[in-house]
Amino acid sequence: MEKYHLDGIWHNSVNFHHTCYCHRCTTNFSEVNGKSIPTITSSQNDWEDYYQWNAGVAEKQLALMQGTVKKYGVDKAYAAEVFDLYKIEQQKHTGISLYSAAEYFDFFIIVAFIADNAAQIEYKDIYYPAVIAKFLKSLKPDKAPVILFGGNGTEHRYIYDPPVDSRLWLWEGIAAGGGFWNCYFNGYFPGNAPDTRNAYLTTDAYEFLETNEAFIRNIQPVTDIGILYSKPTGELAGDDHFANSLKGLLRLLEENHFQYGFVADQLLTPAQLQRFKILFLPNVMVLDEMQLQIIKEWVNKGGKLVSTFETSLFNQSEEQRTDFGLKEVLGVSYLQEKVNTSMDCYQKIMLRNDLVKGMEQTTLLHNGGTTLLTKTLPGAQTITGYLPKINNQPPENAFPSSWDSDHPIMVLNQFGQGTSIYFSSEIDKLNYTVGHPDYDQLLRNSISFLLGPTTVLQTDAPPSVHVYLNQSTVSPKEFMLSLVNTSGGAMRPFRQLIPVHNITITLPFEIKSAERIYPTGMRKLSSNKNQLMIDSLDEFFSIKIIGN
Questions:
Q1: What is the rounded CA–CA span in Å between residue 484 and residue 496?
Q2: H-type alpha helices, 212-288
Q3: Which of 104, 307, 340, 386 sits a CA distance of 20 to 30 A from 475?
Q4: Are 78 and 104 in contact (CB under 8 A)?
Q5: How confident is the model at residue 16 (pLDDT cuts 50, 70, 90)?
Q6: Higher pLDDT residue, 341 or 119?
Q7: Is the C-alpha dihedral spanning 180, 182, 183, 189 positive or negative?
């Protein structure tokens, strides 16, 4: 940095996938822990000691790198790529997490390709860039989130990635206030590569960011709903269970246009919770005593809580409690039994109110996955109840001897001035893995019940249009409203998009002015009091709003 006029240092792939047994590591580990670095036959406790030590070593390395760069000026940037929001096991094994990035990097760059390099290609949820931008903003609002993607991806890197998905990927990130880095791996300038079909795919998106940089830099999501992101839960549950609980919740929020944000477990404070009307705990298994107390006090003072499955059942040492840590808030007690409800299982509607609105023609609802057996505490209300498995064959036995339910699944409880809705099932996960409409409807009804008529945003846009409202932290009357259209074919990757016409958005404030900042051209935008009307949405529509 003395020889060249550099702005900073890029630390590529700052992670270590394998256990190191070099002399330096083995000596240091032995000095700290009084034993050898574990091997494949070692106990889980020994490995936990190693992971804790490894995280400390990794933090020292990041601090050393940051300090070295900053010796050449505080304006010199230090950054590195961090990895998938859902891959907690990788973060645990490498010792470097998204929380590390928040502490040591001057801006966030997160790996976010539309598909990973694998023999079986699986396309990620198209709204993932918006999700990760929101999460990174929750960690450090003053640090810019940047998604690392490629016009040519991580697999088949000499030919282009599907262009429709790629463009939507960018707009999703931009809509939540994120930027992007178009990373090519094949060594060519994009315009000189063997395949130049995506060479200029990002031109208008970069122009949008450049033109609106000062505005976008200082925006934060406007939220009704907060999601508690629990890294310790990911470590305990494993990537698949952790990811699918989050993904099922995010599918619900995106498709129903609910405005949401995140709070990381390390940052959980009473002040953080004041940003939200509803707090979601998507199977947040691990909560320490301080976190339990913060949540209890927030609900007691009027907060609205939705939680699922094993939430609060484990302490910070990942030891199972004898009962839920939030037992009094949830209104249920755990009976120390899990039931496999993955096949031919149901839940019965026990109490009819707005939580089962739209289900008037049935007494039974879908149930799957695993269900905890619990009992409802005095004062709480059982909305739906667990039914044992009803085998579908042979026909003469394919009915139960009784339709009675002794255990709740959905429970409504008042705690102080606040309200809790708890599900003893994996409803959030099932909303993603099974996708039966009953899961979406129960969760959607829960949010509507708790929010009442005071939602941040209402729209008649279809579920395939994702809507994001952001507010300037510098000028609070300035907002950015963005819509991303993912209305296309039945499968990924998308072949083409279907335009959506005549969309109305209702906001919770009166609009003084509304300026279309993308796209240019003939698309019409009009406003009336607190409503916006868009005549046609192709890919992306973004509006700068001044409120009264």
A1: 14
A2: 213-216, 231-237, 239-255, 270-273
A3: 104
A4: yes
A5: low
A6: 341
A7: negative
